[in-house]
Amino acid sequence: MNLNLPASGEKWENGAASHTYVRFMSYADRVSLQDVLDFGAAEVSDDSPFGPLEPLRTPLSRGAWVDVAPGWLRAADELFEALCRDVPWHAERRQMYDNIVDVPRLTKFYAADEPWPHPLVDELCRAVSEHYLPTLGEPLVTAGLCLYRDGADSVAWHGDRIGRSRYHDTIVAILSLGSTRTLALRPAGGGASLKFTTGHGDLVVMGGSCQRTWEHAIPKTRDVVGPRISVQFRPAGVR
Ligand SMILES: O=C(O)CCC(=O)C(=O)O
Ligand SMILES: [Fe+2]
């Protein structure tokens, strides 16, 4: 598979990307809370692109938890290839002390009211929403995508605390595609870190107070790793 991805130090050009995503309706046009409620586990058959969602929970301190469903997405190859190709990935720069530096990963955020890049992303969001609806009481409606081009790409310690997650429990579900990377978690304010493996097709869900009371990161690695895409599903007003 030739993905033609530049390494993290190279300039990223996406001008030639085919913008096939515009032909899909927006997630908000197609999904309502009722759709999520109607989307039963019975719809998962042997030839479904994803398996039944039966995550294993790791309780953390202070009301936080992490669920892991390894290999949940069966159609991971197909989705990884399509997202590498079709997403108009953005390289960002930000101020760091006196310098402007490259953000070491590429991103693209999809709001609920815009077309998403692949119909399977909509379907996966609906399935995860349905599973967590009894806990969360609202659907997951946005898709944040990140592309880590190689081991030099990363995201530093943080909580997803922009919006309601600053004060309230919430859920952030992360689907991983491509190379395996580590998702590290540590208590906010210090403490030993835990490491979760995020492999091709795995779903990792951070819940409860996790965004407020814990921090997470994708550390850089010296291992030779290829690209990884993460797709993060969040409720409205959480970033
Ligand atoms: O890529 C990941 O798995 C984590 C991304 C993340 O934490 C974020 O973008 O807020
Ligand atoms: Fe995050």
UniProtKB/TrEMBL annotation:
Q: Which InterPro entries does the UniProt record give?
A: AlkB-like (IPR027450), AlkB-like_sf (IPR037151), ALKBH3 (IPR032854), Oxoglu/Fe-dep_dioxygenase_dom (IPR005123)
Which Pfam families does the protein's record reference? 2OG-FeII_Oxy_2
Q: Which domain of life is it from?
A: Bacteria
**Which Gene3D superfamilies does the entry mention?**
Alpha-ketoglutarate-dependent dioxygenase AlkB-like
- GO molecular function terms listed in the Swiss-Prot or TrEMBL record: dioxygenase activity
Coiled-coil intervals, chain numbering: none
* Protein keywords: Dioxygenase, Oxidoreductase
**What positions does the domain Fe2OG dioxygenase occupy?**
139-237
Q: What is this protein called?
A: Alpha-ketoglutarate-dependent dioxygenase AlkB
